[in-house]
């Protein structure tokens, strides 16, 4: 289970539990599989339960690569579903490696064509963030591109609201990736 994996400090096992638990939507399971592969590529991340400030279900500390989930005595106590919180915070972890270190990330892609495609996908993502924030920024907590990306991958209500924006209606919807999700996936996977 996800809680067991968190109690063991095993982020990989938590993502694997999300990826294989049939209770989760197919798109969520798919994203969890991609996240698991990326986490393995980027390196160590720690996950644990901690008592967090009121209103916080999870937090990511980029200095220590640690995800803290609101919990006490080994039990999740946050309001948001645990799988969503884990996905949201892993989204922050991955985003930290790409958005905050864009030049370093792009330089790490050795194939010039793939590097250019990743750069273009990140630029499209920037544009989509500005557009979606202008339309949904009061309805959802997306003050930064990092929150936008994390919500895009973890919040089904946000995904539906985004998919219903005129710009995305009729957009390709493969494996649950709509607009910005697909672009960020392209940038991360260098495809």
In short:
With 191 residues, this protein is α+β, with helices and mostly antiparallel strands. It has helices spanning 2-7, 11-20, 26-42, 82-98, 102-108, 112-136, 145-154, 156-163, 180-189, and strands spanning 46-50, 58-61, 66-72, 75-76, 173-174, 177-178.
Question: What this model shows, in words?
Answer:
The protein has helices at residues 2-7, 11-20, 26-42, 82-98, 102-108, 112-136, 145-154, 156-163, 180-189; strands spanning 46-50, 58-61, 66-72, 75-76, 173-174, 177-178. With 191 residues, it is of the alpha+beta class. Strands 1, 2, 3 and 4 form a 4-stranded mixed sheet that branches. Strands 5-6 form a two-stranded antiparallel sheet. A hairpin with a 4-residue loop joins strand 2 and strand 3. Helix 3 packs across helix 4, helix 6 (112-136) runs antiparallel to helix 9 (180-189) and helix 7 packs across helix 8. Residues 173-178 have low confidence and may be disordered.
Considering the chains and any ligands shown, give keywords for the structure.
two-stranded antiparallel ribbon, single chain, alpha+beta, 9 helices, four-stranded mixed sheet, 191 residues
Name the average pLDDT: 83
Total E-strand runs? 6
Radius of gyration: 16 Å
H/I helix tally: 9
Considering DSSP H and I runs of 4 or more, what fraction of the residues is helical? 55-70%
Low-confidence stretches: 173-178
What does the main sheet amount to?
A: 4 strands, mixed
What overall form do the CA principal axes indicate?
A: globular
Strand residue percentage: 5-15%
Order of helices and strands: HHHEEEEHHHHHEEH
From the N-terminal CA to the C-terminal CA, the straight-line distance is 32 Å
Secondary structural class: alpha+beta
């Amino acid at each position: 289970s996800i809680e067991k994996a968190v109690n063991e400090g095993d982020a990989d096992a938590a993502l694997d539990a999300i990826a294989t638990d049939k209770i989760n939507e197919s798109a969520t399971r798919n994203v969890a599989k991609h996240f698991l592969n990326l986490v393995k590529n980027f390196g160590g991340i720690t996950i644990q339960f901690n008592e967090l400030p009121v209103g916080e279900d999870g937090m990511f500390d980029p200095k220590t690569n640690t995800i803290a989930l609101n919990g006490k005595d080994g039990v999740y106590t946050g309001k948001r579903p645990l799988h969503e919180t884990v996905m949201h915070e892993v989204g922050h972890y991955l985003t930290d490696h790409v958005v905050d270190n864009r030049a370093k990330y792009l330089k790490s892609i050795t194939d010039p064509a793939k590097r250019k495609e990743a750069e273009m996908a990140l630029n499209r993502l920037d544009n989509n963030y500005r557009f979606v924030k202008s339309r949904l920024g009061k309805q959802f907590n997306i003050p930064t591109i990092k929150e936008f990306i994390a919500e895009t991958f973890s919040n089904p209500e946000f995904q539906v609201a985004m998919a219903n924006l005129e710009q995305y209606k009729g957009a390709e919807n493969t494996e649950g990736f709509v607009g910005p999700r697909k672009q960020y996936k392209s940038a991360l996977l260098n495809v």
